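Box S1 | Example of a co-folding query
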Amino acid sequence: MNAFSLQNGQMHCEAVPLSAIAERFGTPCYVYSRAALESALDEYQQPLAEVDALVCYAVKANSNLALLKVFAQRGAGFDIVSLGELKRALAAGADPQKIVFSGVGKSAAEMAFALSTGILCFNVESAPELERLNEVAGSLGKRAPISLRVNPDVDAKTHPYISTGLKENKFGVAYEDAVSVYTQASRLANLEIVGIDCHIGSQLLDPAPFAEALTKLLQLIDQLAAKGITLRHIDLGGGLGIRYKDETEPTVKSYLQPLLASLKERGLKIVLEPGRRLVGNAGVLLTRIEFLKPGAVKNFAIVDAAMNDLARPALYDAWHDILAVAPRSGAALHWDVVGPICESGDFLGRDRALALAPGDLLAVMSAGAYGMAMSSNYNTRPRAAEVMVDGTQMQLVRRRETIEELYALESLLP
Ligand code: LLP
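Box S1 (continued) | Returned holo structure for LLP
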């Protein structure tokens, strides 16, 4: 669903004008639509309703507690990659039995805490991690439920920084080594093998690589069964892409179809870890124009949001649509929309045709995923506020930081 639309010449989130949010909470500010979050989760949960399946939202995409609670209340589980994300999920009301723990570098302390809460599964990424987990579980008198994250060596055809399923990536156990690492795991007394896992990359627009990875995982499952190692679940990770510009977004149904077809007979539970697809288009970054700086070669619109608020354009050259909250009639010029930070990489969008005036509000679209979650305090800029809209209601779900908070942890030398 599209929660952001023009109504009477003003962009709204659901029934709330973005201008009212800017007035009440200031800018820059992230705005999320509760209805869009719920409908994105429904797109996954509905086709899976008849089978044993668990949608574990990848917390890294957007870890705001209010947003996590929306998903937890609708039965979602969570994919976490750190103690911090685990504690957030629990604080938002997550059921530990619906949490999977991914990541290549889990510390002993993280393992111990996760074990004490009783999570569903550790997605183990290497043989040494198996050994560490076995030791930690033994010292607590527990058995750790595990999957191996297998690297199926398929090309996700996405940005190299967010492609994770190729041999050259640091993630997972090599496909060829998987059977022997599973055998090793089966000999460790404090581990319980429950599943298999892969995650091949992010922002995939072609569902074919998922089907390819699935086929390879199923072959592996058969090889393991022949050795007496049986699994309860298969976790295909996240990665389904969204429309930022004019991409054709694969439907969740088309992505799930091969999975449902080939798992029907097998009695395996399906676990998925979508991040971006659940939150990306449910959020925008709202910003106000400070100055317009037309020039001989380029026109700059200097806004109050910057690369510290939304790093994706600077980091991946990612494209986010930028729309006027109250579009003006009149001639559009081409603008580079840039922030106040002292770097040429500090842009939100380049060469955008817009009719602008100083003080106008702009919405940077599709900013719900990897926006706030990757923000920083660079240039000692307080991070943006976050607001959740629900119908006609707007609620502050994270207040803006104060400047004093930004250096409160530091001390002066005597
Ligand atoms: N599971 C695992 C193990 C992951 O590493 C990730 C994302 C996900 C699930 C969720 O993937 P998604 O459904 O969101 O594609 N910062 C980058 C994206 C990095 C993705 C990292 N891993 C960006 O802004 O595009």
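The first helix runs from residue 18 to 25. Residues 4-31+280-406 form a domain with the Lyase, Ornithine Decarboxylase; Chain A, domain 1 fold (CATH 2.40.37.10).
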